[in-house]
């Protein structure tokens, strides 16, 4: 069975949209509570998470529980961050949620409108609260010439990774933790994942927009299935030389996260997409790249308009 | 007063989004009827239009009127097209709506899901029915070099045009009437508006996605203010040579629609955007171009995420 580009988008933008599919949306979040902080709704809480919050030890000082609305207490960023940390640490020690086995010791930022931080929280716990997570992805490619087609540098994830082992990835990608900007994140990950020098990346990586979508986690993402994970990914493109002509730089594994880097033609990448070999959100980044670069267009992709708008979903929570 | 990029987006994406602003959306369409055809909602009908449809001569054979829902009758594309044509012709003769003074004799297509035509209708009447209109826009630019910044070819609309006289435009743009594909539309308009040869455009224009938004017409758009006009614009970029080096091609006025073509640097274009000199949906195309080309990014545009998702709105009606 091969997957269409829309099938791939459906995998990552999985929560129905309230504007276009109001009934399906209402059904999907029925039973969820709104996660409120400082008068802003910042996420949805599934029943399994709501139930874990409605215990006296937690709800007393750290949470205010009302029907359909659960509020993180605290008047300052520091207080809210501390209350969230006590909650997730308690769950971690009690082994309450499997997803917390992947504890990262990395702090993600949750925002009020206009990019004001509301609080910080452990990265691995964000899907329990349905809050927006941010990352940065870069596609490194060798442009087409008169004799060679465009080729993309595609890494294969290490077999030992806890999430999506052996799947294909974007050349460089990472989550934006600990207050990183997207560009700093890309520069750092480019060194760690692909051995690309910071100087080269700073001079050549080009920002080219974002993708955003509302992911509902699959089992192969690790942890409980069905957790809600809206995401914004900041995108970068970077041109490199043709290694067949002795040009470079050539991405190479640096840490144990990546097994190998392959230079694939556009047709080879299309084949791997259709076979479902890409990590789902990396497939979405590649599809957006193909649309921006004129490889997918209205003449060859009948679902272009749905695909492109789904990849740029306006999320209902405040964004960075 | 200067306009921010988000101000410019607010001008063209003006109907509140039901997913992110449900109350403002409900207020905006309060009093509107849904325009239904073949079991699909394809537009919103403002009270002034609904009232014009609720007259015996029209509602008898051509329209089915129910509270909140008005259906175009007809079992086939031909019947529905004929019923719509009789309606709009009658209004035109009776001088019922000012917007029909701009009658074009050009047929726009209204779609069911998956791009199946439901019916065809006169272009100038589409904003009366709140249905999606399609166009194609191309940005022609001279890439930056080590010594010169990127420059865009920007036409100034003729002073005699009925809509947006003297405003700045995208290099080539047009509505997709009479069953045109976006690429055919661009090739034709490039010749008519900018004297660019079809051969050159076919070889060099590169598709690069779409923008979509829900426009609410201003008075300077011509016709009644407040009419609803959701739009999808197919985008193309095209690189040309530097005219200062004797390269080309050089866009030049061909018909009476364009006063002149100017080659503006990115900074000059930014200034013209901020001064509100661009036609609103052309400003949106330029902003999308700036984001895709790394001129606007997360580091220099704090509203990047809202701007980019607003420019790729998933519309609630079936699209081409």
Percent of residues in helices of chain A comes to 25-40%
Oligomer: homodimer
Q: In total, how many domains does the architecture of chain A comprise?
A: 2
Large-scale geometry of chain A: globular
Radius of gyration of chain A (Å): 20 Å
Low-confidence stretches of chain A: none
The chain-level mean pLDDT of chain A equals 95
CATH superfamily of the largest domain in chain A: Nucleoside Triphosphate Pyrophosphohydrolase
End-to-end separation of chain A in angstroms reads 38 Å
Sequence of secondary-structure elements of chain A: HHEEHHEEHEEHEEEHHEEEHHH
Please tell me the CATH architecture of the largest domain in chain A by its name. Answer: Alpha-Beta Complex
Structural class, from helix and strand content of chain A?
alpha+beta
Beta percentage of chain A is 25-35%
Number of extended strands of chain A: 12
What characterizes the major β-sheet of chain A? 6 strands, mixed
Q: Please write the CATH class name of the largest domain in chain A.
A: Alpha Beta
List the helices and strands and how they pair.
The structure is a homodimer of 320-residue chains.
Chain A: H1 5-12, H2 22-29, E1 33-37, E2 40-45, H3 47-53, H4 56-59, E3 63-66, E4 69-72, H5 77-93, E5 107-112, E6 116-122, H6 126-129, E7 133-142, E8 151-157, E9 172-175, H7 182-194, H8 198-204, E10 206-216, E11 228-239, E12 258-265, H9 266-274, H10 280-292, H11 304-310
Parallel strand pairs in A: 1-4, 7-11
Antiparallel strand pairs in A: 1-2, 3-4, 5-6, 7-8, 7-9, 8-12, 10-11
């Amino acid at each position: 069975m091969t997957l269409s580009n829309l099938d791939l988008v459906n995998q990552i933008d999985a929560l129905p949209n309230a504007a276009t599919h109001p009934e399906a949306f209402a059904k999907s979040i029925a039973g969820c509570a709104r996660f409120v902080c400082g008068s802003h709704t910042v996420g949805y809480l599934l029943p399994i998470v709501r139930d874990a919050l409605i215990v006296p030890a937690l709800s007393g000082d750290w949470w205010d529980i009302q029907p359909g609305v659960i509020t993180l207490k605290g008047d300052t960023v520091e207080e809210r961050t501390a209350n969230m940390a006590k909650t997730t640490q308690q769950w971690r020690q009690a082994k309450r949620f499997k997803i917390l086995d992947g504890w990262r010791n990395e702090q993600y930022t949750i925002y009020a409108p206009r990019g004001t931080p509301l609080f910080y929280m452990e990265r691995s716990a964000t899907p329990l609260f349905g809050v927006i997570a941010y990352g940065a992805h870069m596609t490194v490619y060798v442009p087409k010439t008169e004799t060679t087609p465009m080729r993309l540098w595609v890494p294969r994830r290490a077999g030992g990774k806890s999430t999506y082992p052996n799947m294909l990835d974007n050349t460089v990608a990472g989550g934006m933790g600990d207050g990183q900007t997207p560009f700093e994140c890309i520069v750092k990950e480019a060194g760690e994942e692909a051995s690309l020098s910071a100087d080269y990346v700073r001079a050549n990586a080009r920002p080219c927009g974002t993708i955003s979508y509302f992911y509902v986690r699959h089992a192969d993402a690790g942890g409980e299935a069905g957790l809600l994970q809206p995401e914004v990914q900041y995108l970068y493109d970077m041109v490199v030389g043709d290694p067949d002509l002795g040009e470079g730089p050539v991405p190479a594994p640096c840490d144990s996260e990546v097994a190998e880097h392959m230079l694939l033609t556009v047709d080879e990448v299309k084949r791997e997409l259709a076979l479902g070999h890409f990590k789902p959100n990396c497939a979405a980044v590649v599809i957006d790249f193909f649309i921006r670069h004129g490889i997918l267009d209205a003449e060859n992709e009948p679902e272009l308009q749905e695909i492109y708008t789904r990849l740029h979903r306006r999320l209902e929570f405040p964004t960075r």
